[in-house]
Amino acid sequence: MSSKEWSELRETFAACAPRAVAATTAAVMAINPEIDLGGADRFFGLTEEPTDVTYEEVTAAGLPAIWANPVGCDTERALVYFHGGGFVSGSKDSYRKVAAHLAKAAGVRTLIPDYRLAPMNPFPAQLEDARSLYDWLLARGHQPSKIAFAGDSAGGNIATGAALVEFD
């Protein structure tokens, strides 16, 4: 017999998958910036709220963002966490708890930005956002050696790409 949690997770995947494919395809075809995958928030809603983490809504480099601040964390270090979503969906809100768990495990405050999404903002807009966030952190006194980028899926691509590209 499956656990209640496993059943909820299975139902969430079953609800998300077809809608995600349909919404993403429709968005690319229609160039619709308001993409609703109709399941990401439900999926990430299953994640437990991390304890001993506070949140602060900010505008970082002109982008809406959330700081996840673990109690007692090293405030001189900063991690920027880019959410997944195929470059066309996801948000700081849907990935907040996932990023906050990472922040707590690393003992560092973590910035979760709403980077610009495709198709209305085609590549390299997302890399430009990463660079702007880096510059924003530098302007606030963070040392380059104490800034890190991370992410999952498309967000991992942004984090990796930003480290490899040379900006003017």
What are the key terms here?
5-stranded mixed β-sheet, 168 residues, single chain, 5 helices, alpha/beta
Counting helices, strands and paired strands, the structural category is alpha/beta
Strand content: 15-25%
The main sheet orders its strands as 1-2-4-3-5
Gap from first CA to last CA: 58 Å
Question: What is the average of the pLDDT values?
Answer: 83
Helix tally equals 5
Q: Characterize the overall form.
A: globular
Radius of gyration: 17 Å
**Main beta sheet, described?**
5 strands, mixed
Question: Low-confidence spans: pLDDT under 50, at least 5 residues?
Answer: none
Name the helix and strand elements from N-terminus to C-terminus, one letter apiece: HHEEEHEHEH
Helical amount: 40-55%
Number of separate strands: 5
Describe this structure in words.
The protein is α/β, with parallel strands linked by helices and 168 residues long. It is 42% helix and 21% strand. It has five helices and five strands. The chain has helices at 4-30, 40-45, 96-106, 125-139, 154-164; strands at 53-60, 63-70, 74-82, 108-113, 147-151. Strands 1-2-4-3-5 form a five-stranded mixed sheet. Strand 3 (74-82), helix 3 (96-106) and strand 4 (108-113) form a beta-alpha-beta unit. Helix 4 crosses helix 5. The longest helix has 27 residues, at 4-30. The model has no long low-confidence stretch (mean pLDDT 83).
